[in-house]
Amino acid sequence: MTDLAQLVPYDEALSRYEPVIGLETHVELGTATKMFCGCPTTFGLEPNSAVCPVCLGLPGSLPVANRAAIEFTIRIGLALNCSIASWCRFARKNYFYPDMPKDFQISQYDEPLCTDGWLDVDVDGRAFRVGIERVHLEEDTGKSLHMGGATGRIHGADYSLVDYNRAGIPLVEVVTKPVAGTGVLAPEAARAYVTELRDLLRCLGVSDVRMEEGSLRCDVNTSLAPHGAADWGTRTETKNVNSLRSVERAVRFEIARQAAVLDAGQKVVQETRHFHEDSGSTTAGRSKEEAQDYRYFPEPDLVPVAPARDWVEQIRASLPELPAARRARLQADWGLSGAEMTHLSNAGAVDLVSATVEAGASPAEARKWWLGELARRANESGTELSQLAITPAHVARVSAMVRAGTLNDQLARQVLEGVLAGEGDPDTVVEARSLAIVSDEGALAEAVDAAIAANPDVAAKVRDGKTAAAGALVGAVMKATRGRADAERARELILERLS
Amino acid sequence: MAAGGAGMARELTRLTAAEIAAAVAAGDVSAVEVAQAHLDRIVAVDPDVRAFLHVAGIGALAAAEDVDRKRAAGEPLGPLAGVPLALKDVMTTTDMPTTCGSKILDGWRPPYDATVTRRLRDAGVVILGKTNMDEFAMGSSTENSAYGPSHNPWDLTRIPGGSSGGSSAAVAAYEAPLAIGTDTGGSIRQPAAVCGIVGMKPTYGGSSRYGLVAFASSLDTPGPLARTVLDAALLHEVMSGHDPRDSTSVDAPVPPVVAAARHADVSGLRVGVVTEFSGGGYQSGVRARFTEAVELLESLGAKVVEVSCPHFSYALPAYYLIAPSECSSNLARFDAMRFGLRAGDDGTRSADEVMSLTREAGFGAEVKRRIMLGTYALSSGYYDAYYGKAQQVRTLITRDFDAAFEQVDVLVSPTTPTTAFPIGERADDPMAMYLADLFTIPSDLAGNAAISVPCGLAPEDGLPVGLQIMAPALADDRSYRVAAAVEAALQERWGGPLLAQAGELGEQAGGGR
Amino acid sequence: MSITRDEVAHLARLSRLALTDAELDHFAGQLDQIIGAVARVQEVAAEGIPPMTHAVPVVNVLRDDVVAGCLTPEQALSGAPATEQGRFRVPRILAED
C-alpha cells in the first residue's frame, strides 16, 4: 500500500516532471448476439441462461464470427480516422482464468482490424489530438461473485460463483498512442478523451456505453519523466478504471505517487495497479512469479477477415455526423461562444438542447431551462440530465407557454416540477395545478383594488410619485393570485389607479 | 429373410453397409434385427477386442425402431437407414458419455450433439456406442486410452492402430459395418491399415468439426471407416457437407464419392510414387505388398511415375510442432471449472492449484508431453524457430503436393511403415510411436484427401498392409476411384475380402491375451 | 541438452500440470529427445515462405447477427463439478494482473 502521506502535491509534481499518458478502453458492442455464437447480449438475465456450448467453451464447440461486430469495429475505426486492414486474423491469447471459458481469449494480436488514427479532444478550450494506435476486436469474459471473506472482493474470498452470460460478448479495445504534452492537464485530458470516445461510440450506434454496467472500461497508463529528459519514464498500467471521474483521479494519483518515487531516487516499477474508488488511490497488483507469456498464435478455428474495400467505403458513407462536427455546427447555428458550447457539452446537454430546439424552442430558451432549473434538479438528485423524467418536447412546450404569456418563469418552474414528479405532460400539470396566468382583467382589477385598499401607506407613496414603491403592491397582487397574475399588467393597473 | 437363429445373426454382421441398407429398405430384414445382431456380436467379442467404451443398446434399438416405423409408414429412408455404426468417443453425443479416452472427461454427458452425430441420426444410422481411442486422439495404438487399449482382431496381442483404434477394431471384428474416426496425423488411415479395412481422411473442411473435441484444429478431420470402399463412400456422403457452425467447413458440394466408388476404373490415370518415401525404415512385407499394389495399378491401365516431394521428410517434425502447439491451447479448457474431473478441491486450495492438480490427475503421459511440447513451441523466444518454422514447412509441403498433382492424378504410398505392432512395444517410446504416421502426415498438413485400402498381408507376420492413395483437396472422389479399383482386383485375386483371411475371434478366445 | 529439467518445470507450471518429481525427470529426457528431433524443421530454407495457418484458403466466414437458441441454465450447469445459485462454483481465485 502506498503511504498516502508520501505523495507529492500534484502541482509540485508537475513543476518537476512531465507526464505521458495512454489509455486502453474496452467497449462492449451493442450487437444483438455474442461475438462467436448466437446467444443474446442482453444485460441482467438469469445467470447462465444466455450461454451455449460455444460461449461456455464446451469441448468440441467452434466459434463463428459475428458480421455485425466486424462492421461495428470498422465503423469505430473509420470514425477514429484509422486505416482498415485489408486482411487480418484473430489470435488466441492463452492464459488460465476461471471466468474465461476456453482458458484462452480470442483476440487480435499483431493484425488488428483498425490502426493508426486519431481523436481530437478539447480540454478547457485547448485542443489535443490523441493518436490512436489500434482498434481491435475480442471477446468478453464471464463474471464472478466472490463469496465468503469480509468484503465480497476477490481478496480473502473463500470461493467464487461464475456466470458466463457476459462471456463472449464482443469487446472492442481502443488503444491510444502515448499522449505527451498535456502537462498539468494530463488528468483532464484523459477524462476528456474518454468522454469524447464515449460520445463518439454512442453517436455511431455501436454501443450504449453504460459505464455503470461495465460496458466501457478503461486501463490507464501513466509515466513521468523529468522536464527536458530525452526518454519517457517507466509506465504503470492502472486497470479497470470505470468512471469518467475515476479516469481523472487515477492519473492524478499516479502522477503524485510516481513523483514521490522518483523524488526519493527510486525507480518506478513497470507493473499493473488497481484503482480504488473509495480512496482514489492505486495499489500494486499481485507480484508475478514469472512474466506472463500469452503464447499468441493465429486462431485456427476462424478464417481470416478481409473486409472488401467497397464494404469499407459503404460503411464510411453511412457514418453519421460525428460529435465534434455536430458541436461545431450547432455552436454556429446557436450563436454560442466556444466556452458556452463547452459548458453545454460538459453538462451532457447538447443532444437535449438540440432536440428541444427541434421541438420548437429557441436555442436560448432551451439552454436556459436545461442548464438552469433542470441542471439544478439533476444535481440535487445526483442523476444525469438525460435521465430526468422529462423530454425535450416537454421543455419546448413550457417555453412556448412562457413565450405566449400563459406562464411566467416562476409558474414554468412549477410546471417542470410537476412533470418531473410524474404528474403528466406540461398541459396536464398546468390544468391540474391551475397554474395559468390570470389574464381576466376583471379579476386582476379586483386584486389590484384590494391590494391598494389593504396598503394605504404604500398607495400614498406611489401617489406622491414614488413609483418604485408600486413593487410592494405588485407583490401583494401576486400573493393574492398565488403567482398566477401577469406582474407587468398588474403594475400598469396600479399606476393607472394611483396617478 | 426368415427370422431367428444364431446363424442368421452372424450373417447380418457379415453384411456390408450397402447390403444392410438395401435389405432394410426392401423389408427383408428389420433395422431392429440388424441392431440386435450387432449388439449380440459386441457382447460376444468385445470383452476380448475392447473396441467400445460405451454401448448404447437401448438407444440403438430405439433408433432402429424409428427406422422400421418410418419404413412401415412409407416415409423416405436415407441411403444408410438402419445401418449400425460405431462412433469414436471424440464426437459429442447427448445420450451417451463423451470421454475422448480420458479420465478428465470420465462420465461427461455433453448437452449437445456434434454435427456429424446429428447428421448420422437424421440419416437413420443406428449408433451402437462410442469407441475407444488414444486419449484426445494422441497416439497410434489406443494404448494412450485411460480405459486400456483395444485389441487388433487379427491378433489380440497387437495394437489396432490409433487413435481411432476402437473404431477400426469394431469394424474389423464385425461389431459394426461402419465407424466414424478422426484423422489428425493418420488416425483414420493407420488403424484402418493395420486392421485390414478401409479408412478415409476427407479433405480438411469437407466434414464438420463442430462437436469433435479438438486435438489440433487446423488438422482434425472426421471420416469413415468400413470394410469396403463403397461403404466408406456411402458414409462419407452422409456425414459430410457444409456446416455453418464450423468456420473452416468447405462451402461446396460433397465430391461424388459414391459414384467414384462404383466406378472402379484407373485406366489412363496417372499415379505417382513419392521418391522420398522409398527410403529405408519400413518392414519388408509392407514394401513387398506396396510394390505389388503399384504393379497392379499399372496392370489395370494406370501410368505410374516417380515424383519427388522434397519437403515430405520434414513433415513429421513439422507435425510434432503444429499439432502439440494447437493441442496445448485446445486442452486448456479442461480446467475443472465447468465440466469434467475436479481433483484436490479441499476448500482451501486456489482455483489455480485445483486446475493443476486436476490436469495432473486427469491427463495421461502422452497428453502431458504434447501439452508441454506445444507450450514450449509457442513461447515467446521460441515461436519463430519452432511453430513459425513448422508453418512455413507446411506451406512447402503443400507446394510439393501442388507440383506433384500437376504431374499425376494421385500419389500412392504404404499407409504406415509396419504392420500392427505388439501392445506395449512402443508404449513409452514416443519417438518410435510417432514413426507410425510417417506417410500419413503430409496429407494432414496439406489438408487434402487420402484413403487407406487393404493391399494384402505381410508374409513375415500374416498381418494386413494398407495402400494409401492421396488426392488433391476436394478431389476425394479420386481416392475412392483408385481404392475401388485396387479392392476389386485384389478381391478377385484373393477370392474374397482380405478380412475373410483373419481368424475367427471365437476360435482365438483365450489365445491372444 | 536442448531443454533442461528446470525449463520443463516451467512449462509444467505454464500448462497447469502439477507434475511429480519422477515425472519431471522422465519427461525432461523425453522432451529433450523430441525437441531435438523436431528442431530439424530449422534446417529447411524457408526465407520468404509464408506460414500456413489454415488448410482452407477462404476468408470472411461470418455469421448474421441473429439470436439462436441457448442452453437452459440446467443444461449449462449439468456437467459442472459444483454449482450454487445457478452459477458455477469454483475455488477461490487469485487476483488477475
Explain what the structure shows.
The complex is a heterotrimer of chains A (499), B (513) and C (97). With 499 residues, chain A is of the alpha+beta class. Chain A has 16 helices and 15 strands. Chain A folds into three domains: 4-314, no CATH class; 323-433, no CATH class; 441-497, Arc Repressor Mutant, subunit A (Orthogonal Bundle). In chain A, 46% of the residues are buried. Chain B has a single domain (16-316, 389-500), classed as Alpha-Beta Complex (Amidase signature (AS) enzymes). In chain B, strand 10 and strand 11 (463-471) form a beta hairpin. In chain B, helix 1 (6-14) crosses helix 3 and helix 11 (315-330) packs across helix 13 (365-378). The two termini of chain B are 37 Å apart. Chain C has helices spanning 5-14, 21-38, 73-77, and strands at 62-63, 83-84, 87-91.
DSSP helical segment count of chain B:
18
Average of pLDDT of chain B: 95
- The proportion of residues forming helix of chain B, as a percent range, comes to 40-55%
Please report which band the strand proportion of chain B falls in: under 5%, 5-15%, 15-25%, 25-35%, 35-45% or over 45%.
Answer: 5-15%
Name the CATH superfamily assignment of chain B. Answer: Amidase signature (AS) domain
Helix content of chain C: 25-40%
